[in-house]
Amino acid sequence: MSFIFQKARLLNPLEHLDTIGSIKVANDGTIEAVAFGNETITASSGDRIIDLQGMIVAPGLFDMHCHFREPGQEYKETLESGSNAAAAGGFTGVALMPNTKPVIDSPLGVVYIRHHAAMLPIDLEVIGAMTVGSKGEHLAPFGKFRSYGVNAVSDDGSAIQNSQIMRLAFEYASNFDLLIIQHCEEKSLTEGAVMNEGLYSTKLGLKGIPDVSEAITLSRDLLLMHYLEQHKLHSPLKRPRYHIAHISTKAALDLVRKAKKDGLQVTCEVTPHHFTLCDENLFHAERKGNYIMKPPLSSIENREAMLEGLADGTIDAIATDHAPHASHEKDCPADHAAFGIIGLETSLGLTITELVDTKVISMSRAIELLSVNPRRILNLKPILFTPGEQANFSLIDPNAEWIVSTDSIKSKSANTPFLNRSLRGKARGIFHKGKLYESEAL
C-alpha cells in the first residue's frame, strides 16, 4: 500500500522548502512523487490518502542526546519503551549516550544495541564512551568504534578532568573524524551539590553548583583546541570537532561565540528545560525531585541568554537529555534525588510553545534545531523530500493543544517537571522504515 500525504505544509530547511504540497510514498518506503501548490498526485486503487489540512511534514526529528538505560537499568527505560516515547514525540531517530551499566566503552555494547534496535520504529545511533568506564583515566578504543560506525564519543555525566587525557582525546578523535561531546563540569566545584548556587539554594539550605563550573571546563577544552590548531598537532587530515552538551550559562555561550568566530569546529545544544525553566521554578515546586538535573536549572539571566543564543544562531541544536528515573529516585528529598528528567514527548511542544509561538524563532528554525542540525553535527545522512529518497518524516500539528499527563506518557518513567502543563504543538505521527506510526489518528 502506498501513502499520499496531501494538503500538507512541506517544511524542509535543508532544501529551503516551505510550501503547501503533497508527497506520495511507495510501499517500499521510497518517495515516489512530490507535488506543490495546486498540483495533484494521482492515487491508485489501494492507496491510503491522508489529508493533513495544512499540518507540517518535516524531516524526521532527531534527538542527539538520550539515555535509554539498557543495558543495566531496564527498570527505568528500555530500548523499546524509549523508542516508543521518541516516536510519540515525533522523533525518527536518537543518539544514545554510553553511560549504561556496563558503560558502552567497546564495540560489544554497540553491537548489543544495534541488534536489539533492528525491529524498533526509530533509528538508534550509539555514542561511544570517551574513556574506559567513563572514568577519565584511559581512552576508549576510538578506532574500533569508528570501524563499527560510531560517529561520536562522550563521557556524558562526567567531564574528563585531566587535561592531558583531554588533549589525547582531541588528537585521537581527529584521527578518526570522531565528534567529541563534552559534559562541561568542573567536578571539584560541584561535589555534593544539587542545584544552582544562588539565592534559592541558600533559601532551601541546599548545596549549590556555581554556574562558572560549566565555563571553566569549556574554557580549558577550547584552549586545548586552539593549541592543537596553532601547532598543527591534530591529524593532518581532520581537525578536532567538539560539541557542548546541554549548555546552560551565558558565560559558556559567550565562549562558544568567540570560538566560532575564531574558526574552531565547535557546536552546542540546549535542552527545553534550560530555555524554559530556572532555579526559581525549583524553589516553588512541590515535587522538587523532578527539577533536579545536571547542569542544574540556572538563573533567569542564564535562561534569557539561552533564548538569545537560539535566536542569533549560536546554539546549533535542541536536545532533550532524556533521562528516565523510577519514581522512588525522584519522589524524595531534593538532595537525594537522581539527576535528570524525561523529555522526548514534551520537546516539540515546548519548542513550539516557548520559542515559535513567542516569536523567538521561526518554525523553520525549529526544524533546523530539532532535525537538520543534529544530523549534520553527527555526520548522518540528510533527509531530502526528493523522489527516490527514503521517506523519513515527522507529522506535526503546530496548533494542537494538549496537557502533559502520566496517562499520555509512553516512556517507562514519568519524571518530568512539566506534568499538568498545557502545551501547543504535537506530533501526530512519524513515517519511517516504510511504516506509518500514528501517535493520534490521522
Notable traits:
globular; eight-stranded mixed β-sheet; Urease, subunit C, domain 1; alpha/beta; five-stranded parallel β-sheet; 442 residues; 22% strand
Give structural notes.
This protein is α/β, with parallel strands linked by helices and 442 residues long. The protein folds into 2 domains: 104 residues, Urease, subunit C, domain 1, CATH 2.30.40; 317 residues, TIM Barrel. It is 29% helix and 22% strand. The protein is built from 12 helices and 18 strands. Strands 1, 2, 3, 4, 5, 16, 17 and 18 form an 8-stranded mixed β-sheet that branches. It has a 5-stranded parallel β-sheet with strand order 9-10-13-14-15. Strand 17 and strand 18 form a beta hairpin. Helix 6 runs parallel beside helix 7. 53% of the residues are buried.
Sum this structure up briefly:
With 442 residues, the chain is an alpha/beta fold.
The CATH architecture of the largest domain would be Alpha-Beta Barrel
- Quick one: overall form? globular
Stretches where pLDDT is under 50 for at least 5 consecutive residues are: none
- How would you state the average pLDDT, rounded? 96
Give the arrangement of secondary structure elements:
Layout lengths: L2 E10 L4 E9 L5 E6 L11 E4 L4 E4 L1 E6 L12 H10 L2 E6 L10 H11 L5 E4 L15 H6 L4 E3 L8 H13 L3 E4 L12 E2 L2 H6 L3 E2 L2 H19 L10 E4 L5 H12 L4 E5 L1 H5 L2 H6 L15 H13 L4 E2 L28 H10 L6 H15 L15 E11 L18 E11 L2 E4 L4
Parallel strand pairs: 1-4, 1-5, 6-7, 7-8, 9-10, 10-13, 11-12, 13-14, 14-15
Antiparallel strand pairs: 1-2, 2-3, 5-16, 16-17, 17-18
Helix pairs in contact: 4-6, 6-7
